[in-house]
Amino acid sequence: MEARYNPKEVEEKLYKMWEERGYFYVKTDTKKKKYVIVIPPPNITGFLHMGHALNNTIQDILIRWKRMEGYNSLWVPGTDHAGIATQNVVEKELLKKGITRKQLGREKFLEEVWKWKEKYGSRIIYQLKKLGASCDWTRIRFTMDKPLTEAVKECFVRLYKKGLIYKGKRIINWCPRCETALSDDEVEYKEENGYLFYIKYPLLDGGFIEVATTRPETMLGDTAVAVNPLDGRYKNLIGKMVKLPFVERIIPIIADERVEIEFGTGAVKITPAHDPNDFEIANIHNLEFVVVMNEEGVMNENAGKFKNLNRFECRNKIIDELKKLELLSKVENYTNRVGHCYRCDTIIEPYLSTQWFVKMKPLAEPAIEVAEKGKLKFYPERWKKVYLNWLYNVKDWCISRQIWWGHRIPVWYCKNETCPPIVEKETPKKCPNCGNYEIYQDEDVLDTWFSSWLWPFSVFGWPEKTKDLEIFYPTDTLVTASEILFFWVARMVMAGIEFMGEIPFENVYIHGTVRDSTGKKMSKSLGNAIDPVEIIEKYGADSLRFGLISLTAFGQDVFLSTDFHIKGRNFTNKLWNASRYIINKCKELNIKEIKSLENIEKAHFPEKWIISITDEIIEKTTDSLEKFHFNEALNNLYNFFWH
Q1: How many angstroms separate the Cα of 512 from the Cα of each of 234, 382, 505, 521, 638?
Q2: What's the pLDDT score for residue 524?
Q3: What would the CATH number be for the domain defined by 7-164+359-409+444-546?
Q4: Could you give the CA distance from residue 533 to residue 52 in angstroms, rounded to a whole number?
Q5: Taking a C-beta distance cutoff of 8 angstroms, is the pair 296, 176 a contact?
Q6: Separation between Cα atoms, residue 492 and residue 474, nearest integer Å
Q7: Does 7-164+359-409+444-546 match 184-349 in CATH topology?
Q8: Which pLDDT does position 98 carry in this prediction?
Q9: Which residue in 75, 77, 81 sits closest to 121, CA to CA?
């Protein structure tokens, strides 16, 4: 044996041997008690980052521990098609060649995405293997594999026929860059410094009413001004009419108790097609809906002379014009929560659009009950409250996306517009209502999370009643990060109960976020990211894994210095040297086989002592692992061996 441990030489050989001998493969017909984890599927666009490294190291610890305890220990791997993210990546690649998605057309573009997926989509799987992940690679799944696509169709059709999926015209979050709808959970809010503009709206019978807004470009779509009925300042103005500047639309002053008396002047503009609160008010007061921009965030014909300006150019132009007309009273500095697209960081636009939605409240009720009754357990327990608060206030889920990469919505329409939509798993040959052969499929695809929420059972073949599904569902533990608690965890619980009749896992372990030594979240853009692949190449996977877990206190964020892995490197070297010493000693003494003591009473005192300490460490470590206290378990082993 070499005097110094060389992980590059050892780890690759070991992992290859494990795979070739089928050590990670799990038989379906085993009589052993099962322990199952399904991997949170990484995006096919992804590279292994420290968050992945931490998450998958924790899963691997649990799987290997249960395997050592004699369980039929299955870890199912896979990847996610990541609709918007993947489409964006491929579009950028095409733009380098001067080609746009729209120039190619849908079918040709999808061919390009599949080519990209075949070339780069398995990159992160290769990196997970380098990390030492002991998944059953014979069971690897992809969210757009044919069986998983069938599961998505089955789910959509069942929920539609149950009245839990509907198509409606509502205010949604719209990304003008990606040109698609986003669910509420896909919007990232940032505190930003902006302005509050005070604008005078002329009253028809003379005088003005002053409103305050952060988005003056949307005033072109106003269909009312609202005041609180308890606000004495405006009591005499309720019911009067206003002439909207620039477009000269005549709009009413209405009373609504939702108007905040303290905000601005206490009078607010109502823009039903571009604000979710205004949308609700407009429905109650039967107001008109006027959309003033297109899907690219450019002002349309309803914007009058501001047509063809983008929304921010329009804002500046309107402010200039208001000043000239002496209709801008004042401008105040104002800190506002601004929503951004979670994929491209573009400021989202609240937008009136026809989309597909899932009714969430009926699905949320049983998901609430299992948490309240303790059947679904969270580690740390504080996340239970966060999970429940979201479900108590859950809104309908916008599931349609105006992109091309993803699961196409299984809905067809007849050219005869009087016929209702045709919702079926397979393409119909003709309209079942009128017999017309001219039918066409909905252009939209489903939200990526619509396939992901089925993951704990779709990977086992659902809706088919497979042996895998019978044996391995429900799974046991989910290891994940807090940022996808709503995107994924809560929805998986809902789907598991709805389609399988039981929760998809019993334990949810939520680990912290990986940060640098100053507490900043690691990211390439900030220049503080540490590449786990580089550490693996130079110091080995065990050095990386040891370093991460030793710093992972129960449910807390992980703070990494640039040399966090050195302690792990030193420990692996210590293990190597100790093993080398024992092997060399055995050769010296001509010991061919090392056996455990058959009768401990015959052992010498030092042997009895070390055996008792070992038993104590096994008990402590097992207890720590059962509580998901991973750094405690590691430190027990480290202190036992090192000291």
Answers
A1: 51, 13, 20, 11, 22
A2: 63
A3: 3.40.50.620
A4: 11
A5: yes
A6: 12
A7: no
A8: 95
A9: 81
- Confidence class of residue 233 from pLDDT cuts 50, 70 and 90? very high
Give Rg (Cα) of the chain. Answer: 30
- Please state whether the predicted TM-score (pTM) of the whole model is above 0.70: yes
- Rounded to the nearest angstrom, the gap between the alpha carbon of residue 355 and the centroid of all alpha carbons in its chain is 20
Residues with Cβ within 8 Å of 574's Cβ and at least 6 positions away in sequence, in order, are 641, 642
In the DSSP assignment, the letter for residue 499 is I
Largest CA distance in the chain: 110
Instruction: Select from 3.40.630.30, 3.40.50.2300, 3.40.50.980, 3.90.740.10 the CATH code of 184-349.
Output: 3.90.740.10
| Beta partners for residue 335, in sequence order | 193
Task: State the Cα–Cα distance between residues 537 and 131, nearest whole angstrom.
Answer: 10
CA 600 and chain centroid, separation: 54
Q: At what angle do helices 83-96 and 106-120 cross, to 10 degrees?
A: 100
> Residue ranges per domain, the chain?
7-164+359-409+444-546, 184-349, 566-642
Over residues 316-345, the pLDDT tens digits come to 999 999 999 999 999 999 999 999 998 789
pLDDT digits (tens, 9 = 90+) for 26-65: 998 778 999 999 999 999 987 888 999 999 999 999 999 9
pLDDT, tens digit (0-9, with 9 covering 90-100), for 418-450: 999 999 999 999 999 999 999 999 999 999 999
